[in-house]
Amino acid sequence: MSDTTTTTAASHDPEFLYEFDREPIPKSRLLGPGYFAGAYAGEHVAATEFVIGVTFVNWGASVQDIFFGLVIGNLMAVLTWTLVCAPIAVDTRLTLYWYLRKIGGPRLNSIYSVVNACLYSIMAGCMITVSASAVRIPFGIPPQLDWYPTDVRFVLVVLAVGAVVVTLAVLGFQRLATFATVCSPWMFLMFIVGALAVLPELFASSGEQGFFEMARTSVWTGQTPDGSEPMGFWKVAAFAWICNLGMHGALSDMALFRFARKKSYGLFSSFGMFLGHYLAWICAGLMGAGAAVLLGSPLVQLDAGEVGFQALGWAGALAVVIAGWTTSNPTLYRVGLALQAVTPNWSRAKITLVAGVVTTIVACFPFVFTGLLDYVAVYGLLISPIGAIVVTEHWIFPRTGLRRYWSSHAGHAINWAALLAWTISVALAVVLERTGTMHLFYLFLPVYGCGMVSYWLLAKAMGAGGSDIAESDAAPEEPPAVPAASVTRRSPVDRRMAISGIVAALALVACVWLGYCTLTAPVESYRAMLAKLHTQLPIPTLLYFVAGTIFFTLRERSKRDGAATEAAQP
Questions:
Q1: What is the pLDDT of residues 196-228, one digit of tens each?
Q2: What is the sign of the dihedral through the CA atoms of 71, 74, 78 and 83?
Q3: CA 111, CA 97: separation in Å to the nearest integer?
Q4: Spatial contact of 116 and 247, defined as CB atoms under 8 Å apart
Q5: Distance linking the first and last C-alpha atoms of the chain
Q6: Whole-angstrom Cα distance, residue 270 to residue 563?
Q7: Among 22, 397, 433, 481, which is most buried by a count of CB atoms within 10 Å?
Q8: Closest Cα partner for 124 from 271, 286, 332, 323?
Q9: What 3-state DSSP class applies to 364?
């Protein structure tokens, strides 16, 4: 996925992103723009998109709220990655965990790691629950929409899905990450095909001719099912901004952007935001509204598995399962990384196994599924003050006469100013939300500002004043790698890769074509065409996964061989 000639084979290994967890990334390991575009496009077309897109409909968002509010919110998220997260990552070439250790000391880093691991476990549990919502369908298990399970068979399904997810996460993260790359193009197209497939039903039920008129009357109506206050434009925009607050504002994605050649690579987060958190959310809302019409059932009584199944048949159910699978595994991996700070003698496999057991138990309770939007907001608020503290020490301290890393240089095991600032900021969030002063989705700005101001004041009072201590965070200089000699003869691997790539692309085109045929079918034959879509879509899907897996496997092999050839050059 990288376009650089100096990237070694290790840079295409998912484990590689965490090899330098205690030191800056060397220049020879930096990645080009293609890597970041692909990473964000893949990670943010996921299981949560099925849930969030439908929730916007249930929460009474209007057409204007969705189509314009999401633009504003996602743009703000991209700018936060570009102007805050990526520059600090490129300056330091460190993960957040190790940079926080320099700022806050080992004990604060341990506290943060445990909190982050717990929050990630709940998120991974949500992904497993989403997958289980599709696996339950052939067993006739009703949707689980309460905060607790109402059918013991659903618990058994969750335990089975969780066991598979955890086992594969422990044994083969690299293979799973490669498979997630294979899944990404197909997953994205399933959102589009599902929306195309249900549009005729939505037009027929609304009686409207234009798309926006139909969407206004049948999908994003601006009214909630129970008559409560609708979500509104600014809440939609705010949620889109804070949805990944933990990654951009709280700086977790320093782990990714420390490999970036330039700070401007933060702009590549737009591939995730506008493909996943814009187009996929819109398509998921259409799929949910269409599934409700097809079933003659209120949308609030449907889960992600039912929505996918009604729109796309078994291919849709598979999409929900894979979406949950491909996102729960890297989330579990992040849990393991976070817990390594407090379990130094444990292997990654052992940490991931323990975290996976806890996560699977959490997944048995559908509250992680039904309250996802609120949970995402709470998750971001709990850890965003840490991002504010790092931003303050990294940028504000040198400009205001305070010393960076003052606590570590003083030999403190914990930076009490940082811990107090974190606590004060979270307390402010609780007070503002519980008193009704401010909605949960709007709390990011005052909480982040409180973290910055309180940390600066507390640090100055506790001894951070004085001249800045010069300390280089730059990556070690290395001689540039010599590009490998060009090879004009195509190898058998190249030919097989080209053929499999063409077959995979044609299979994806066939998937879209089936959706288009359903969209354009005459009114009287629409249901027959929808049934045909359900029957035939698994065929190009299977063909894509076979050809796509061969293509991506051969491509990775070609990159490794190229890197080996490059390394062998004098």
A1: 999 999 999 888 778 999 999 999 999 988 888
A2: positive
A3: 11
A4: no
A5: 26
A6: 29
A7: 397
A8: 332
A9: coil
